[in-house]
Amino acid sequence: MAAILNFNYFTDPETTVRLLDPTAITDSGLYYIIGQAQNNCYSDTKSVLVKIYSPPATSFESSQKTGCIRQSVAFRNTTPINSDYLLRWTFGTGNPADSSNELNPYFTFNEPGSYPVTLTVYAPGGCFTSHTDTIKIFSTPSMIINGPARSCINGQVQFTGITDEPELNSL
Questions:
Q1: How far does CA 133 lie from the centroid of its chain?
Q2: How far from the centroid of its chain's Cα atoms is residue 75's Cα?
Q3: Distance between CA atoms of residues 97 and 91, nearest Å
Q4: Please, which residues have CB within 8 angstroms of residue 95's CB and are 6 or more apart in sequence?
């Protein structure tokens, strides 16, 4: 039958500075654990190197905030991380396959709508942060452009235009 161990946690090899709550460790470093059998027949001290990762302030940029269907949008991670961190992009379509683990992915939206694009960054310790930005995709609009059929040389010519997408008319 295995003995049940009680554990005590310390910040120094002499085991004089005790940690009352090991879950409150906030700094990377070497920590010392004493495991003691409840029957006092066995005791051992082990050192454990703990690396603390903080969740980064996740951020990204996109090549455009608005676009038309079937137009590729480039996304660039601007989160200050190294290769220890993992990335997960979701493109807001509702389809789990519309995601990426690339550092700087491209994505093509095939339907008009507003898409909440989310980048989640995972630190090695399991903590993570996310950032979401919305991309607005329009149908390919029909356009009407009006202007004079005739003009004089050096004359001012003015054209007007409108689309069948009211939101595009105000951009």
A1: 10
A2: 11
A3: 9
A4: none
